[in-house]
Design a protein that fits this description.
about 70% helix
C-alpha cells in the first residue's frame, strides 16, 4: 500500500497529457470511448485511493479504533501513511464525493427535463422545426430524442447541407453522446485533474458526428464546408437569450460552435484517422495499471486491518 495507493493519483497527473493526442490522432469513436473510460476509471480509482488513505487515519483515533476492535497503538506503528497525509486525503475525499454527487444530481435533472421537453415537441420523423431567425440546431435526448432546427439555420443551408446537418445531429442521438459527456464529467467532478479528458470528449463526440455525416453523404469536403458555413452563420447571428430547450440542454448549435471549428474542418479535409493501436494500447495499459494498483492497495489495507485487530 505504501506505493500502490499513490499510483492512481500519479496517473491522474499524467493522463491529461494524452487527451490531445487521443482526440487529434485517433478515430473519433474510439477516442471518445478511451477518453470517457479514462476519466471514469481514473476518477473512481483516485477516489478509492483517497478513501483508503483516509481509513488509515481513522484507525489511529482510539475511539474509532475501539469501535472496529483495532489497536490504535499498533496502527500508529504499522500504518504506511503519515497522519497528515491521511487527513488531507479525507478532506479531498469529502470534496470529491460532494462534487460527484452534485454533478450527478444536476445531470439527472437536466436529462429528465430534456426527455420531458422532447416528449412535448411535435415532430415529423424526429425533426422539430421552430420559427426563429437565429441559426440554431441541436439534439434533445429523449425516448425518442428530437432534432430541433430553426428556420434561420435551414435558410442558411442548401438541401445537401441540410442533410448533413440532420445526419450530424441524429448521430448525437443514435450514439447517445450525452451519456459519454456525462460519464466523463462525472470522473472530472471527482478528480478535477481529469477535466482535460472531459473537455476532449466534448470535442471527439462532435468529430464522431462529423464523421458519421461524412459517411452518410460520402463527401467529407462538403461536410467540412457545412461545418464552417454554420459556424459563420452562428457567429454573425445577434446575441440573445436561448430558448427553453436550449436552456435545458445548456448547448447552442453544436454543429456550428461545439468544439474548435478550425480543428474539425481540418480533420474533415484530411484523410480519416485510423485506430492508432499504440495510443489505444497505452491507454488500456494505464487504465489496467490504475485498476490493479487500486485493488492491490485495498488488499494491503485489508491486511493492515487484520494486523491491528485488537
Amino acid at each position: 500500500m505504501r506505493i500502490a495507493v499513490y499510483i492512481p493519483l500519479l496517473l491522474s497527473l499524467l493522463a491529461p497529457l494524452g487527451a490531445r493526442p487521443l482526440a487529434e490522432r485517433c478515430e473519433p469513436r474510439l477516442a471518445t470511448w478511451l477518453l470517457t473510460a479514462s476519466a471514469l476509471v481514473l476518477g473512481t480509482a483516485t477516489t478509492i485511493s483517497l478513501g483508503l488513505l483516509a481509513v488509515t487515519g481513522l484507525i489511529r483515533v482510539p475511539q474509532l479504533a475501539t469501535l472496529g476492535h483495532w489497536s490504535a497503538h499498533t496502527a500508529q506503528r504499522d500504518d504506511p501513511a503519515e497522519l497528515s497525509v491521511a487527513l488531507i486525503a479525507g478532506l479531498l475525499l469529502g470534496a470529491a464525493v460532494l462534487m460527484a454527487a452534485r454533478m450527478l444530481w444536476r445531470r439527472a435533472r437536466t436529462l429528465a427535463a430534456a426527455i420531458l421537453e422532447a416528449e412535448c415537441m411535435p415532430a415529423e420523423d424526429g425533426l422539430v422545426v421552430v420559427e426563429d431567425e437565429a441559426p440554431e440546431a441541436f439534439a434533445v435526448p429523449g425516448l425518442p430524442g428530437r432534432v430541433v432546427v430553426s428556420t434561420g439555420m435551414l435558410a442558411t443551408l442548401d438541401e445537401t447541407e441540410r442533410r448533413i446537418l440532420l445526419a450530424h445531429e441524429r448521430a448525437h442521438l443514435t450514439a447517445h453522446h450525452y451519456a459519454f459527456v456525462a460519464l466523463a464529467q462525472l470522473g472530472a467532478a471527482a478528480n478535477p485533474l481529469l477535466r482535460p479528458l472531459a473537455t476532449a470528449v466534448t470535442y471527439t463526440i462532435e468529430r464522431w458526428a462529423d464523421e458519421t455525416a461524412a459517411a452518410a453523404t460520402g463527401d467529407r469536403e462538403r461536410v467540412a464546408r457545412t461545418v464552417g458555413k454554420a459556424a459563420l452563420a452562428a457567429h454573425h447571428a445577434p446575441a440573445r437569450a436561448p430558448g427553453a430547450a436550449l436552456a435545458i440542454l445548456g448547448r447552442r448549435a453544436p454543429l456550428a460552435t461545439a468544439g474548435p471549428v478550425p480543428r474539425r474542418v481540418a480533420a474533415l479535409l484530411a484523410p480519416p484517422f485510423g485506430r492508432h493501436p499504440v495510443l489505444a494500447a497505452t491507454t488500456a495499459a494505464v487504465l489496467a495499471t490504475a485498476a490493479l494498483s487500486t485493488a492491490e492497495a485495498a488488499h494491503d489495507l485489508h491486511l493492515l486491518l487484520e494486523a491491528v485487530g485488537a
